Each structure stands twice: as structure tokens, then as C-alpha cells.
Amino acid sequence: MLDLVKHETERIDSRFLEPACGEGIFLAEVLRRKLNVVESRYENSQIEFERNAFLAVSSLYGIDILQDNVELCRDNLYTIFVTQYKNLFKNKINREYLESIRFVLYQNIIHGDALTYQTCGLVEKPITFSEWTLVFNNKVQRRDYQYKHLLETQAYDGPNLFSDLGEDVFIPTPVKVYPLKTIYNLAENVQPEL
Q1: With 80 as the cut, is the pLDDT of residue 51 above it?
Q2: How many domains does the chain have?
Q3: Which of 147, 141, 126, 149 is nearest to 183 (CA)?
Q4: HSE value, Cβ hemisphere, 13 Å, CA-based, for 76
Q5: Measured between alpha carbons, how far is 16 from 111 in angstroms, rounded to an integer?
Q6: Which element (helix H / strand E) includes 140?
Q7: Residue 89 covered by a domain
Q8: pLDDT tens digits, residue range 72-131?
Q9: What pLDDT, in 10s, does the model give residues 75-85?
């Protein structure tokens, strides 16, 4: 199935959402393909590998209604990532970087119901995804968007950079924008949500 969109699976920053991700079988194969591209291009530079591998991981999103599936999906993706990272940089593992990768997977793989757009658990709230953009050097801009709003199709009012795409361009508004951090300290000073 992924071979039908092979060029997208090999684009490091191409985003994938699996709305019923289960244990992450689909997302795991996408991650493997992306990391293979990153390795082939940047295996001789740990910094460049880390930047681009971060993009590969942060472009994967999943939702599942079962909490154990969500945890398995996160663990499976993390294991794939760590295995490839450690194989390349055996003696130079950056623990803070690995914590950032784990944090991104926690934010991007959501325990929720893709049909109701709500998280599952004691307190239901709108499913919210983070967009991770490398701004410069190793700095990351994080913006949160509600899943429901990402699926809306309302026209954008005002000057439009995408005018050649017609009137149906929709640019969602983030619900939260975070201060810049580096790919090495994303998990630092994060307060757990209750």
C-alpha cells in the first residue's frame, strides 16, 4: 500500500496521520522508510542526522481508541528510531535528544476517538496535534492545532499566498504557540497533563 505513495514515504517532512493506528504497523513502516533516507544522506554527520530524523519522527501522527494500542504504537516507533540511531552513533548517544523524540511521540500518538474528535479517558477534550517546524539551526517551533479544525474546509480571507489553488484554501489557526526550543530540550520543564 505504501508503495502507491512511495515518493511521500521517502520525503522526510511529509506528514502521515493514521486515525486508527493500532500498534503502529503502518506508521512503523513509514518511519523505517524515512529513517533509511535520512541515514543514506546524513550517516556521516550526527547533527544533520539528528535534525532530519527529528523531522521524520515529528511528521507521524496517530489516534487510537485503545490506550494499550497507543502505548504500544509509541513504544514501537521509539524502538525503531533508537535502534537505527544507536547503530549509527554507538558511542555518541545524546540522551536529551532521545527524550525529545519520546516527547514528540507522546504528543503525536493520541489516545482518542477520531470520529468524535475527542480524547478518551476520564476527561474528554478536543484532540490536539502539535506541528513541529525546524526554524533555524536546531530550534523548533511548536504549534498546537485541534484535529477537528484541521479537517474543516473554510476559505481563508485576505491576501493568499496560495491563490493559484483557488478559493478553497484553508489555513488553520493554532490554539497554542510555544516558545522556541531545541531538538535537544523539548521535554525539559514539561508539566504533565492531568
Answers
A1: yes
A2: 1
A3: 141
A4: 21
A5: 17
A6: strand 139-146
A7: yes
A8: 999 999 999 999 999 999 989 999 999 999 999 999 999 999 999 999 988 899 999 999
A9: 999 999 999 99
Q: Which domain holds residue 15?
A: 2-182
Is residue 171 left, alpha or beta, with left meaning phi > 0 and alpha meaning psi from -120 to 50? beta
Domain membership of residue 106 (yes or no) is yes
CA pair distance 121, 113, nearest whole angstrom: 10
Q: Is residue 191 part of a domain?
A: no
One-letter amino acid at 96 equals E
CA atoms within 13 A on the CB side of 21: 34
Assigned domain for 188 exists: no
Model pTM? 0.88
Provide, for the chain, the percentages of residues in helix, strand and coil under a 3-state DSSP scheme, each rounded to the nearest 5.
40, 20, 40
Going by C-alpha positions, the residue among 87, 194, 182, 99 that lies closest to residue 142 is 182
